[in-house]
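FORM 12-B: Structure-to-Sequence Request
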């Protein structure tokens, strides 16, 4: 059983975040270049959307 679920969640995020640079580094670099050229408001909207989706998912798996 997992003693510290928050640490497990952070570890899973690290695994998922590392997949693309490991599998396709050129694609990852191009994506970062595109992100750097985006307007701040679009990045904020994306970030807010991801946080809401994560919160809904977290709430769903807790019930």
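FORM 12-B RESPONSE
SEQUENCE OUT:
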């Amino acid at each position: 059983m997992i003693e510290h679920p928050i640490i497990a969640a952070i570890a899973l995020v690290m695994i998922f975040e590392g997949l693309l640079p490991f599998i396709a580094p050129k694609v990852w670099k191009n994506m970062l270049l595109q992100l750097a050229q985006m307007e701040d408001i679009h990045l904020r909207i994306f970030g807010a959307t991801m946080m809401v989706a994560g919160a809904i998912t977290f709430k769903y798996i807790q019930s």
